[in-house]
Amino acid sequence: MYPVVVSDLDGTLLNKQHELSPRTRDVICRLSEKGIKFIFATGRHYQDVEQIRAQLGVDMYLITSNGARVHNPQGEMIIQHDITPELVHPLLALRKPFEDKVHTNVYKGEQWMVEVEHEDLHAFSKESGFTYHLADFDSVDTSAIQKVFFVAESHADLLPLSDQARELYGDQLYMTYSLPECFEIMAPGVCKGTALEEVLKLKGYGLQDAIAFGDGMNDVEMLSMVGNGVVMGNADPALVNSLLGYERIGHCDDHAVAEYLARLYSL
After folding, report:
1. How many angstroms separate the CA atoms of 18 and 252, rounded?
2. Which of 8, 48, 215, 236 is the catalytic position?
3. Whether residue 163 lies in the annotated active site
4. pLDDT at 216 over 80
């Protein structure tokens, strides 16, 4: 039995409407009552995820911005990895040739910043109420930026930008896709897996003591490092191909993680 459960949010613990189902809420609370430690590990911003955690009323560590930030159950930031300030403006300049197809986002400190309104992104705020505000990226202060990410209608629309970013800065930054339509850039060495390893050490656990669930390429390190990595039925095909032979479960719309955990822990 694993004493620690770790889960991604969008496409994994949350349904396609970016909501926690009543069944999922119930299972997380019952696991907590049994003494099982639950950890959210997500690309989302801490301010966003903390609102979801608070609604559950369960104390937990939160791994956010793909591991660029970690907060303890008291809300104290214990891990902080920022993009080198000198690289921020060159990264943001990559958007210029693709602005008609690519929407640029920045997580800076406690803020989510965009240059142009994007109504589709409001769906991600439904559960928490955390949302973006407008900023001028050409003059933005480059300190304390944990993540730059680009969103497009299709993976094909993102490929020219992501290929260019990897060619220019691939050895200086960590880059991944959280969705085929969302390309994300963090400081080097940042990923959910390394952040989780640090958290588990604090609690006297090893990676073998955790079971983890995910659906995107930003989950690949975490799933491959833990005692049991479980892939969602609705996962990005690239993740499935990267983790051939790993256990797969149902769809996030069917609260598959909750049902799996209820069986595993006899809830």
Report:
1. 10
2. 8
3. no
4. yes
